[in-house]
Amino acid sequence: MERLQKVIAHAGIASRRKAETYILDGRVKVNGQVVKELGTQVSAKDRVEVDNVPIYQEEPVYYLFYKPRGVISAVSDDKNRKVVVDYLSDVRERIYPVGRLDYDTSGLLLLTNDGNFSQKLTHPKHEVDKVYVAKVKGIAEKRNLLPLTRGMRIEGKRVAPARFEILSTDIKAQTSIVQLTIHEGRNHQVKNMLKAVGLPVQKLKREKYGELTLAGLRPGEYRELNKKEVSQLLDKAKK
C-alpha cells in the first residue's frame, strides 16, 4: 500500500506536492469514488483516475537537458511559448522538470517522472550543489562578493552562504564573469544575490548539478542519466 499522492507522482502525472492539490481539489478518484483525503492508501489493484483519466505506473526515467534561453521550465504554457518537454518529444513517459530555470537562463535541467526523486532534490534541506556562471555588469572584486559567502537576506528571506570565483573581468566593457555555487533553489536566487552586491546579471547559465555537467551536449539536446548518476544525486541529497 502507498499514499495516493505518491502513486500519482510516480505515474508521472505531477510532483507529489501538485498531486496533493489535485486530491484536495476533488480531481482524483479511487475505484470510481472521489477522494479528498491526503492520507489515503492505495494498492496496485486499485483503479486511480486523475481528471477521469486512469493512470498507470511508469518505470522511472531520468534525463539531463541543456535548456536554451527563451524556454519555459514547464510541461505547458498558457501563452503558447516553448516549454522544455517540447525538446523531449521522443520520450513517451510523462516527465516534468526537477525545479526550474528562469525563462532567460540556460543550462542544466533535470527531468523525470519520479516524484520521490524530484522531491528529494528540490527540498531546501537537501544540499546538492548547483554551479552557475553569470555575466554581470560591473567589475567584480572579492570585497564585493564576500557578503555572499556569509549568507544574506533576499526579499525578506535569508539565503544560505554561497561560494564564488571571479573568472574574468573586462575593464573596457565594464563587465565580469562570475561563477557562483549554491545549494538552494529559490526563484531568481542567483540574479537577486548578485544584484544585492551591485553586480546585476546580464546573462546566466547553470553549468553543473551535483557531479553532472553539460559535457557533450548543445542547447536543446538531452541524454538519459545512468543508474550511477541517479544514485550519486540521491546520496548527495541525503547528506
TrEMBL record:
SUPFAM superfamilies: Alpha-L RNA-binding motif, Pseudouridine synthase. GO terms for molecular function: RNA binding; rRNA pseudouridine synthase activity. The keyword ATP-binding does not apply. PROSITE patterns: PSI_RSU, S4. It comes from the Bacteria. Residues 2-65 form the RNA-binding S4 domain. SMART domains: S4 (SM00363). Its EC number is 5.4.99.-. Keywords: Isomerase, RNA-binding. Pfam families: PseudoU_synth_2, S4. One of its GO terms (biological process) is enzyme-directed rRNA pseudouridine synthesis. One of its GO terms (cellular component) is cytosol. It is an enzyme of class 5 (isomerase). PANTHER family: PSEUDOURIDINE SYNTHASE FAMILY PROTEIN-RELATED, RNA-BINDING S4 DOMAIN-CONTAINING PROTEIN. This is Pseudouridine synthase.
